[in-house]
Amino acid sequence: MTATLTAHPTALTVSSRIVEKLQHGELSPEQVEDFRHFLGEVDRYFLQHRIIKNNEYTRWFQQGSATDQELRHFIRQFSVFSNQFLVAALLKVINSPTIEQSRAGREILMNELGVIYRKPGSAVGARANLSDTDKDREGDPDLVSTEGTVDGGVCRFRAAHFEWLTGVAEGVGLKYQDIGKRRHGRPSTLHFCDELARLYGSEDAQIAEGASFAVENWAAAGFWQELEDGLLKIQKARLPHLKLAFFTWHNRVEGQHAGHTMEELEEVYFDPDFDKQKFFQGGREVLEAIAAFWEGLEKDRVKKIYQ
User: Fold this and answer.
1) Separation between Cα atoms, residue 213 and residue 274, nearest integer Å
2) Can you tell me the distance from the alpha carbon of 228 to that of 236, in angstroms, rounded to the nearest whole number?
3) Are 55 and 295 spatial neighbours (Cβ–Cβ below 8 Å)?
4) Distance (Å, rounded) from C-alpha 173 to C-alpha 178?
5) What are the domain boundaries of the chain?
6) For residue 284, which phi and psi values (nearest 5 degrees)?
7) E strand or H helix that includes residue 206
8) CA–CA distances in Å: residue 119 to residues 54, 80, 123, 306
9) pTM of the shown model
10) Which CATH class is domain 49-115+157-303?
């Protein structure tokens, strides 16, 4: 997919799917050119946003110099976002305007809750001979997959993303009851969670579409790699038993989510009811909320605030 983003995204381009529709006469040259111009706007308004281009906190975290106290604070705040994201994801499913978009939302939600992606023709646990170290780095093949669909997948409690994060938290002295609840969140973290529910899960399909596109492409734009780099350095230096599967798996899978969102955008853009202004509103507002979360963590770090 030519429009799927990876770390440090480059300019969006028209995908082969759109070119094929042009060749088959399903779209006119004028429509394709308009879409190309629209993608340029998306690049300027979304992908050039400061939190995608210059996340000060994750750039610092990548160095692997976080103290145990700083690491616990990060894990606790990230756990609140991760757990509360389920609310926004459920709202997205409930408010989906089409069955196809509902299914796309359920792919993400059900995987979050522990339904393993199933790649047709591949058995669950096909690589179960991996060492424990490799399972943590690459993901336990009995519990994770980065390809396929949840349709026909297996549900396992230990495959729920929050359970993986609980394993990370235990490595820094935090228990299940210490993480994930709203009472554990700083104001900037809770603002992010609330904005995700309002925008990503919006009843207005146009705003939700913009927020969804921005969220998934932010997630695919490199911050997971920066977090993984920092955690691997900490693991090697002083916490050899720190479990990292939650972060390493997300680092590998988010490009798939972004690709699905791009396909969805191609469908809705050519709908006569598509509202470009609301699309950009949803995306830009959710990016500001994402920025508030990370900038809040950076301010806490500078001021040595640990909750």
Assistant:
1) 14
2) 12
3) no
4) 9
5) 49-115+157-303
6) -70, -35
7) helix 205-219
8) 35, 30, 8, 42
9) 0.86
10) mainly alpha
